[in-house]
Structures are given as structure tokens and as C-alpha cells.
Write a structure and sequence with these properties.
four-stranded antiparallel beta sheet, about 190 residues, globular, about 20% strand, single chain, RmlC-like_jellyroll, 8 strands, Jelly Rolls, cNMP-bd_dom_sf, alpha+beta, cNMP-bd_dom, Crp/Fnr family transcriptional regulator
Length: about 190
């Protein structure tokens, strides 16, 4: 499991063996069964997770008990409930395994210490945070300015592995459309 993380890191930046060992030593290994929660709404998010295998979703539930998926994470992706992780306040979101999933976890304190002590890791994390912010802005813009068909096509293009692994109703939730609407879009597109 740690080898997957090591390969990920070395593909992104130059790390010494000692730095890699330090990053690995700070990680907790956790195995989640399908439908098991990494975080439940109302709990404080104490970890940032790196997905070694499997998939997760981060979602919030509205007053009518409708789930709204904010993001997915598959192998070599990071996930956390950022607001709770940053502030220490109870989480508004829930993180759930969509498949049997293996993650590496770091506490906020450990993660911050690793960023301070390993410049390449700090640089990598800053780059990832910037890309995540940009992706969220683009997703917001797309959701308010593009029709459902275009949102689906952009989703398939951006995340070609997701639509085969993630249930249709969850993709619909992520796109902000009903399952029926997404089924019509897929039928009209003649693929996926």
C-alpha cells in the first residue's frame, strides 16, 4: 500500500528516501468496506486521506434529505472535508466508501508538520490545493452556465474512469440533475 503512495509522490516531485520514509511513517492505514464512512456529518474531520485503492464520495444532505455530491476520489486522489479539517468545527459533509477502499490518513498536526519539514511536499500540496480551487471554480461556472448535456460530456471527458465505477444516480447528483434526466442524456448521446 505504501509503495503506491511512494510511486505517486516520486512521479510528482523529487523526494529523498528519508523524506519518503518520514511521509510514510506519519500515515495511518485504514481499510473501509463499501458503504463504510470515513467521516459522518457532525463529526470533526481529523484526517486528510490519500486513496490507495477504491473510491470515496464527499456529500452533503439538505433539509429534504437529498444528497448532493460535492466530489469523488479514486486512486491517487486526496480527500478531506476541508472546512472541518481546517477549523476543527463539526463537518457539514460525509465521506463514504463507494467500493472497498484503502486509504492513508494524516492528522492535521502531522500533515502541517510534514509540509514544514519537507519543502517538496509543501510545494506539491500548494500545487494540488491551487488545482483543486481552480477545478471548483470551473465546476461552479459550468453548473450555472451549461446545460445538463454539456455538464455530462465535460464530466465524462474529465473523469473517464468515474462513469464506469460510480452509480448513475451518484453521477446525476454530482451534476445536479435527476437520474431520469441523466438516463435521457446518455441515451441521446448513444454511449457511456
Amino acid at each position: 500500500m505504501v509503495e503506491t503512495f511512494r510511486n505517486y509522490l516520486t512521479s510528482k516531485a523529487a523526494f529523498t528516501d528519508a523524506e519518503l520514509e518520514q511521509l510514510e511513517a506519519g500515515a495511518l492505514v485504514r481499510k473501509l468496506k463499501r458503504r463504510e464512512y470515513l467521516l459522518q456529518k457532525g463529526d470533526v474531520c481529523r484526517y486528510i486521506a490519500f486513496v490507495v485503492s477504491g473510491s470515496l464520495r464527499l456529500y452533503r444532505t439538505d433539509e429534504a434529505a437529498m444528497e448532493h455530491i460535492l466530489r469523488f476520489a479514486i486512486e491517487n486522489w486526496w480527500i478531506t472535508e476541508a472546512e472541518s479539517f481546517r477549523t476543527g468545527l463539526p463537518a457539514e459533509g460525509t465521506i463514504e466508501a463507494l467500493e472497498d477502499t484503502h486509504v492513508l490518513l494524516w492528522t492535521k498536526e502531522n500533515f502541517e508538520q510534514l509540509k514544514r519539514e519537507i519543502p517538496a511536499f509543501n510545494t506539491l500540496e500548494n500545487q494540488l490545493a491551487g488545482r483543486h480551487f481552480d477545478a471548483q471554480i470551473n465546476r461552479l461556472y459550468t453548473s450555472i452556465s451549461h446545460p445538463a448535456e454539456a455538464r455530462y460530456q465535460e464530466f465524462v471527458k474529465a473523469f473517464p474512469d468515474f462513469y464506469q465505477r460510480i452509480p448513475l444516480h451518484m453521477i446525476a447528483s454530482y451534476l445536479g440533475v435527476s437520474r431520469e434526466t441523466l438516463s435521457r442524456i446518455r441515451k441521446h448521446a448513444g454511449s457511456h
